From TrEMBL:
It comes from Paramicrobacterium chengjingii. Keywords: Membrane, Transmembrane, Transmembrane helix. This is DUF2306 domain-containing protein. The keyword Membrane applies. The chain crosses the membrane at residues 6-23, 35-56, 62-81, 93-115, 121-142. It comes from the Bacteria.
Amino acid sequence: MWHLVFVSLHAALATVALVAGVLGLRHPRLLPVHLWSIIGMSLALPFSVVAGWAGFTAVTRPIFVALVVLSCFMVIQAFRANRASRSDAHWRIVVNCLGFNVIGLTTGFLAVAVLRMGAGPAVVILVAVGVPVVGHFCVRWLRNRVVPRTKRAATAPAAGDPITRR
């Protein structure tokens, strides 16, 4: 029962983190929501792993431990994005950090969906590798092409300013 409670809490907070992360690129006031939902998601994950440990195989146990470590790194990225969003000059950091978290969350949701559909290991591996690769190129495109909606972008930036580059 506790495993289900913690997994449900983890999934609900991950959903909030994903939505707040995507919307946070356009609405930086949502970055604290992203941060706190990532923190809650990361706190619920180890409890769900411990509660379900007996039901895991020798292959899945290290995977879940690695996911706990990954969630800690996601907390760091959420803190970095939140802090960098306070300065108009650090929008690339915000895009990189949010991009990492959104890619990780999207990969997690899609991998779980593929597993629940009964797909074989090849499809799961394809999702686990393909989503981050595609996500990397999307983040790269955002970082290099999208003009952030900041106070500074509304004013006339200097000629060599990377914000104006398209």
